[in-house]
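Q: Convert this sequence to structure tokens.
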Amino acid sequence: MDRLLSQIESPLDLSDFSNDKLDELAAEMREVLCNLVSKRTAHFASNLGVIELCLALHTEFDFRTDRLIWDTGHQIYPQKLITGRYHEFPTIRTRGGLMGYPNPQESEYDLFMTGHAGCSVATVMGLHAGDELQGESQRQAVAVIGDGAFPSGIVFEAFNNAAGMRSKLLVVLNDNEMSICPRVGGLASYLDRLRMNPYYRGFKDEVSRIIKNVPVIGDQAERFVWQMKEAIKAGVHGGMLFEELGFKYFGPIDGHNIRTLRKTLKKVKQVDGPVLLHVLTEKGHGFQPAAEDPVFFHTPAPFEREEENVVAIKKSKSRAYTNVASSAILEHLERNDKATVLTAAMCQGNNLEVVRDTIPKRFFDTGICESFAVAFAAGQAKAGMRPIVAIYSTFLQRSYDQIFQEVALQNLPVTFMLDRAGLTGPDGPTHHGMFDIGYMRVFPNMVVMAPGDAFDLPLMLEFAQQHPAPVSIRYPKTTAEEIARDVRPVQFGKSEIVREGKDGTIIAFGTLLPNAVAAAKELEADGLKIRVINARFAKPLDRETILDAVSQTPFVITVEEGALNGGFGSAVLEAAADAGVAASHVKRLGVPDQFIEHGDRAELLADLNLDMAGLVKTCRELASAEASASDQQQLTGRANAG
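A:
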């Protein structure tokens, strides 16, 4: 098994491979990917689709010196397999193992951690410019970008500059007719038209040869011939959009035919200036269920192959916060005809297919264009609608200026539903939603909320949709929990006391609240009565309830699944400082000033003392320190009295 693959330590080992042998290697690589996904959730369909492209690129270029950026990066698995990481491959997306995205710490072949779409063309242009400035212009520069990422605004910014700089650059457009979900918009339609005419490149070259040889006699004849040339070009030149932007266009070609790929790559790398090579691939290629349903098989649950290409999916019966949010959104849209929902190519990830299918007129998928999505939502809000922007925390960062200028500055009632806020587990640092508390709460007019449990989330959506200003609601990628209690209505800027206690306080902002409640119950065995507060709001903060806890209990622990810098705990300390309340006994728990690696979410929470055991440990340490300090004060008092 893996007879060829197990012997490859670097792409240099491919140099003597025939095309037939590369086809055999590709089959082995597909089998390795199938075996991996039978064990754990991993990116699947996208990696199956680029195996031949990866092999062709690494046989025709030497990326020890040449430059290669894989846009988005979740299709990096084939490259990992042939760049000395085959034997470590079973560890991918596990704690301490290989990352599921490019990682420069793993290999010289991974130049950037690319987890957000659209940046490859700009970064590889920068690499090439830097190389030229240092006298290394012989280095080739290649960016591989998918058709789903291609409409991102930064791509066309890069194209505009590439044409102006006349950079020697190869952009490989990996066209599989998909983003994560089916692609949308005018560019998608344009690419579809190009797909329908895969042979026009040779015809265009022949026409160009003919019209160049047409004799020109007189001004009128010259104008006529010029007009004829332009008409012929417009009629047969499907890649005209790219050539008008300054790129020489080649393709489309079959992205699963290694012979064609290698032959074409040999040609295009000899061309000066920017080149776009249009490659047609199939997501899930070589595994029928994934090819038929690439949306589901983007990151499927582990499965077992019962027969050839037939799978039994190991389905989870647990309900996630994403499901709670999508159900609440659908129910709200059914009641409120002013409400809309927008997502940026993450219909499946946000579990919004049912909303799209039930209320299609008020559902908008903008593709991987988060800045547009937020500005578009602002326009809807200004017109009197109540838009709900459902985007992952880490991806919403891409629209930061629009949140500022078009939403917060205008004080428009846009509701932001931030999925994957907090630790996303095996996706790692590119996808952890660490920074939204800090980047949202700095804006005037913005309300920043987080549900303590599944009961809170629908209530917060209803509150946000009635509030006359922008609201941010964050929730993690994990199983939804419910805390048995009389759930209090959501009131502007008000927290909820879940348990009373005088020996210390845990203030939880977000869905780590169940851990705080469990820790308080555990600490009862120590004789400690711990107050637990469901903060609900980071902005505006419930100063009365929270500062009372800071003033009246021996220690306070703030708990958040996000960056400590500028986060909820910082908001508590700021409030205490403004009120002149001593806060040296306040302990903040969250994510320190570092990027957190990939791993199981429970493992990462434990590392950060954010699980139940970590909260119990921290409370005991603070209670012990408080008792020691109290004993010391008593001894000092007695000594002074004596």
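The chain has four domains: 5-197+238-298, 198-237, 321-474, 496-629.
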